[in-house]
Design a protein that fits this description.
Blueprint (H helix, E strand, L loop, with lengths): L10 E3 L6 E4 L10 E4 L2 H9 L6 H19 L6 H14 L4 H16 L6 H11 E3 L5 E3 L3 H8 L3 H20 L5 E6 L7 H11 L3 E6 L6 H4 L1 H12 L3
Parallel strand pairs: 6-7
Antiparallel strand pairs: 1-2, 2-3, 4-5
Helix pairs in contact: 1-2, 1-3, 2-3, 2-4, 3-4
Length: about 240
């Protein structure tokens, strides 16, 4: 009989490697065997073959299974349909398990609402076009260095006054744009608020239109390039 260490958990994730492992409960208490879950199929098998038991543990295992599915898709962007398929695979492993269905539904809803991971090619494109070599080595952003240096030399009161003045100038500039203009906002943006976006499109711009792109934060074209392209095409085509 093997005695488990005091801190050994029935399921755990190694935060350094992202590896998920479970204790095979079919062999307890006579033998201690740890199984690594590397894919959503591994998690489904562990649930279906009762390597994990008890409603709470089954639900947690299913949640980690969806995490494994999302991680597998991260390199090419999380695919919604693939995630839904993974969720069905997990819930079908034990259709009567209430905790399993609850955990999968909650993780799936959170994942689908979140911005997808930026694709490697998008990050490379941003680095290529958004950075420039520094004379002494390394890189810097393609913005006017004087702008940031000037801001750093300001007092708090001066910075607040500058922000107020610049903000007013920007609103006035928007009001002078004569052509049809599309305002694109990522649904999860914490920079451009819904109220400000609506004011820009509906009150200030003479011919403004607002498009809110799901699963994107402030950098819409990076977070959800397909959604961004769809919004722009619909605007250009007058749809």
């Amino acid at each position: 009989m093997t005695t488990a260490p005091h801190k050994l958990r029935p399921i755990r994730r190694d935060h350094r490697t992202d590896k998920v492992s479970i204790i095979d409960q079919r062999l307890l208490p006579h033998e201690l065997v740890v199984i690594d879950l590397e894919t959503v199929a591994d998690a489904e098998r562990a649930i279906r073959e009762m390597a994990v038991r008890g409603a709470p543990l089954i639900g947690v295992t299913a949640a980690y299974g969806l995490f494994l599915a999302a991680r597998a898709y991260a390199g090419r962007g999380v695919d919604d349909d693939s995630l839904r398929q993974a969720a069905r695979l997990l819930t079908d492993a034990r259709p009567t398990a209430v905790n399993l269905a609850w955990a999968v539904a909650r993780v799936l809803a959170t994942t689908l609402a979140a911005p997808p991971a930026a694709r490697p090619e998008a990050i490379a494109r941003m680095a290529r076009h958004g950075l420039r070599p520094r004379p002494g080595g390394g890189f810097e952003r393609k913005t006017d260095p004087a702008f940031h240096q000037g801001a750093r030399r300001m007092t708090e009161a001066e910075a607040e006054e500058r922000e107020r003045r610049v903000t007013q100038q920007l609103w006035e500039a928007l009001a002078r744009v004569p052509c049809p203009t599309l305002v694109v906002r990522g649904a999860a943006s914490d920079v451009l608020s819904p109220d400000v976006a609506e004011r820009m499109a509906e009150e200030v711009l003479p011919q403004g239109r607002l498009a809110v792109v799901a699963r994107a934060s402030h950098s819409v074209m990076t977070d959800n390039p397909e959604g961004f392209a769809e919004a722009v095409c619909a605007f250009v085509l007058g749809e």
